[in-house]
Records
---
Amino acid sequence: MNPASNLILVGPMGSGKTCIGKRLAERFGLRAVDADREVELRAGARIAEIFEHEGEAGFRARESAMLAELLAGDGLLLSTGGGAVLAADNRRLLRERGFVVHLQVTVEQQLERLAQDRSRPLLARGDREQVLRELALARAPLYAQTADLGFDTGAGGAAEAALALARELDALWRRPPSPTPSPLGATA
């Protein structure tokens, strides 16, 4: 059991990190933050534009800086980008600063969920299925290495998955209690 004050969702694109994350944040009283959206807001540009002008390395540097800033605080539900686990320092930070859940999904489910999505730079090249298979092969071990819990989001919709995951989290994740101020004059 990892008694962390932050809940962090990792996993491939289309696994439901943002949709499920919003529901879990409400359920657990956490502030929901989508790391990719935060990068976009602060850069004043869409991820595709960042990739175009700075390359993937430029985007990953922005992503790492954003993760460090966001995870300096507590009470957060953080939905990461699919590649956030690529950097060893990011994996270490995620493990140290939160209870990490790996949202799992098959390539076939990703293809269905992302069929109309044209905003993802990594899917803009070549055969989408092949790209997703290559990403899964490279990233699945990193998700597993980082996560405290694996959860399959394939069956049902986001609401059902969030409810089932919340039940598992109730049993496995214990947030540390808030510090109680000691009465004036009391000694520890």
---
Amino acid sequence: MTTRTLIIISTLTVLFFSSCKSTPDLTEDEVYTIINEIIADDSLYIDRVCWKFQDLQLTDEYKKEFTQDDISFITGQSSQFKNLKVKPNKLKWYKRRSKTFEFTTVDTVCDQGILHHISFPLISADRQKVIIEFQEDCNCMLGGQGGKDLYEKQNGHWVRTKGFDHWISENKKWKDEKQLLVTAHLQ
């Protein structure tokens, strides 16, 4: 065998094995598609969202829901998408009155009115499991609510199968003032 033939065979072998990556990288379009499908399948009312994806750490509790390959894949997502921001005209929610999908408004200030915060999702390598956090913040005296959920794709739809760290809050100052009014009224 000639040197030239060996070089060609070696080059083709390297190209073949380097192109046979078992799991393709996650794309930005896939991220938005998965989030939109979850919003639609779970009938979430996400009409206004803060521009920055929240950071969701891969805890030991969450790791139990994924395979070792998934965990490696998710770790790669953290660095690949560390600067991703919520872009206008990418997220949609279902408006029941008009029975249409509407684009979610992206708020760049995030400190007035009712809005949502979304974490960057932890997505399995096969794109069949996702842990994501949705928070609703009213920036008012009512407080907010939120939590992290595991969604699994079943029969082509995302189904919430497990919840983590759900919370509901109300504004303590408003609650204390309300209690004082009730107490004063009873006296």
---
Amino acid sequence: MRRNGRPRGATAASRIYTDLRAELVSLVRRPGEPISEAQIATAYGVSRTPVREAILKLSDEGLVEIFPQSGIFVSRIPVAALPETIIIRKALEETTARMAAERATSSQILNLHATIERQRDACAAKDREAFHQADEMFHASIAEVAGYPGIWKLILQVKVHVDRYRRLTLPQIGRMSEVIAEHEPILAGIERRNPASARSAMASHLERLLDDISEIQTLNPEYFDQPTKEL
């Protein structure tokens, strides 16, 4: 860091990448919107070099698109890729839920209950961001309880576009309450030490993401890519 607090070098690129990624995944920067390297560089008090490094990394993740003659734009959600990613996540989290039911301690179960309470509070306050963060904590904690936190880290790498899509489901009337209702039987299965029940409840919860794709795309067509139909 420079004395005036501005980031420099690799630190600047890392911070800009982290901040921009959070804005893209949370849809603060909406699909299709232009991104100005110059504006970002000015905001952070840096040259355009670390900004370009961050943008290139985000491009590798499919979160931005770079058009040499037109500019940089927030990518639209690739609807065709969502089912496969959700299926991968579902397979992995069925495993963590099952193993959590086999290994959970009493204190870990209490922590899971506390996380659901955080979701209830966020739902009551209509705080979608706090709700999303508590949701992430619930799933990450189950992987931790299962003894394989690395599984959640792997899921984080593959589900970036699913997270963008999920943000669009939360404003739907009653959806946050429904998520809590879907989480409760997962926790109940873990608490009862019933691996099959926990696995089944997790599967049902994540299958809902598959079921809602078409509806959410119809409600927010401008946020999704529109694959060209073959003639």
